[in-house]
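re: that chain from earlier
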Amino acid sequence: MKVYFSGAHSTGKSTLARYCSEKYNLPLLTEVARSILSEKELQVDSLRSDLDVVDDYQRSIFHRQLAEENKLNNCFVADRSIIDCLSYSAQHSRILPELLSSPELLHYKANLQASGSILFFVRPSKATLASDGVRESLNWDAIISIDAQIKFLLQMWEIPHFQINMDSLQERALFIDNIIKLYR
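^ sequence. v structure.
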C-alpha cells in the first residue's frame, strides 16, 4: 500500500503522514524538498530571487521524490507527491513543461491511479494553519494558489483522492483510519 499526503505547505500533511506511518507500521518518506534545502544550504524565501537556482531546486525535488519512492518497494507513506512538486514548479520555476514531458511522469500517474495507492488531499484551513518551520512567514494567498493547482492536476488526471478538510486532528485521523480500512 502506498499512502500519499498531498497539499499546500502548512496544512498538516507531515503530522498526518507521521501518524499514518506509525499507526500502520509503514516506512515514512519525509518531504524531500526540506532535505534538498538543507543539502544545498538554501532558504525558501531566498529561492525567489534567482530563477536558475529555483529551476535546479524544483528539478532536484522532482527526481529525488521519484528515486525515494522507488527505493521503498510500493509500501510507504509519503509526505508529498509529484503532484505537489509540479504545483510548486508551476508557481515558482520555469521548468514545468520539462517536468510534464518526463517519461517517468506517465508511469507515476498510472501508479497514483492504481488500486494500491491512496492519496489524501489535505486542504488549507485558517484554523489549522501552522508555520512549517521553514518559511519566514505564511502567505494565505500563496497557500490557496498551490492548493488550487494541486486540485487542478488531481482532477485533470482523474487521480482518485480523498479530501481532508476538517479542522480537528482527531477527525482527520479517524477519516484516514476509515479509508485505510477499506483498502486493507
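The CA atoms of residues 18 and 111 lie 22 Å apart.
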